[in-house]
């Protein structure tokens, strides 16, 4: 039987890539066609995404990819572009780390109390959920002129095909979707004065999303027709689809700019306890729920590296491995670390404020970050199991953080569970496999995971060290 080729466009907060997946009945290979940086730009009005440069990267990537049977697009969540009545983009999309959402949640909760909002949408509180962004933008002329809102992957799909839609897994991060029905939360939108007509009709992974436009074929040197297939367009939905689990009793951590730590469930958990613990119910493939918590992730390290003039990461991680463990930890779930800038100082200040030794060298700060991430992974996975009544025997780590062996080992130690690390390009693989499934090459979700487990290089970490030290460190943060 034939092997098919699929292009996966995967845009993360730190880099974009176009990957080519070759899928056969019992084979799966992924190769990088093109990778390009994703650098937000600060202009007088705030922090913006350079979406035209990303689109140029996508076109260059498709050219490098060559002949493919279909294309799928995923990216980070929550952000969007606005189009005017002619379909033209109104300004650069606002970055979710922009300061415009500060203090907005309180205004929203005055209309729809936080508990009601959680019951209706299942989403954890994060200042950047699209609902808060739209509330922050309420009185802007740009929004007044907008006739359409397209989430980032939907915007790129529109530019590639001319067709508009709103992909469901990513739509679930707007906080305007009801996880129980998979449809818009009409009541919440109406009460907050958000016009759902701005959104294009919902589409689901597997739905067709049009054909590459003639100009796109010309620019990329491809021969048409080339279909674009809807995938789990939220990068985390695609990454979770590519967790190579062989049973049901697993937790996952998608590591990159963020750490998304949690479980795959068949129904949302909407209890008050779950809300208080700030767990989210995002939608995954086939009606599944991604029950997880956002943890600041390797963003903390990325920002420190930027402050230190981008030293060699490998060398720094070797030095950090030699620093004594758990001397100081910070709360890696704290939204205080969301904004860019001064990260080494902010981490040192958090240690000082909690009466712990203040890390000084770059190796000490790096160690503090990795210990803190492992501790946050431990907390999230323990709490998710309890709140969802879903015990696990193994933790799967996928994404860029799988290349950080120290982080993987510390996570195994902190969780007291075996860790299976890989694949690194999970979002791209999930993207490719949903396309392949749509074209009949692989079966259900479990088949897809078995194929990954058989074909992808995975690294196993066994928990080591003294579990009591992690309990002590956790207590140190809890008593603050
Ligand atoms: P995103 O999709 O959010 O942009 P990625 O999944 O690409 O993020 O992961 C990026 C992260 O992976 C970086 O912040 C870095 O910490 C980690 N990483 C990348 N390469 C290496 C490496 N060679 N060694 C250790 N960590 C790495
Ligand atoms: C990871 C991610 C995450 C969202 C954040 C905005 O790339 O999509 O799932 O919470 O970006």
UniProtKB/TrEMBL annotation:
Pfam families: FGGY_C, FGGY_N
Enzyme Commission number: 2.7.1.5
InterPro entries: ATPase_NBD, FGGY_C, FGGY_N, Rhamnulokinase
Cross-referenced CDD domains: ASKHA_NBD_FGGY_RhaB-like
Domain Carbohydrate kinase FGGY N-terminal: 68-240
The name this protein goes by in its record: Rhamnulokinase
GO molecular function (one): rhamnulokinase activity
Domain Carbohydrate kinase FGGY C-terminal: 251-437
Key words of the record: ATP-binding, Disulfide bond, Kinase, Nucleotide-binding, Rhamnose metabolism, Transferase
Family of this protein: Belongs to the FGGY kinase family.
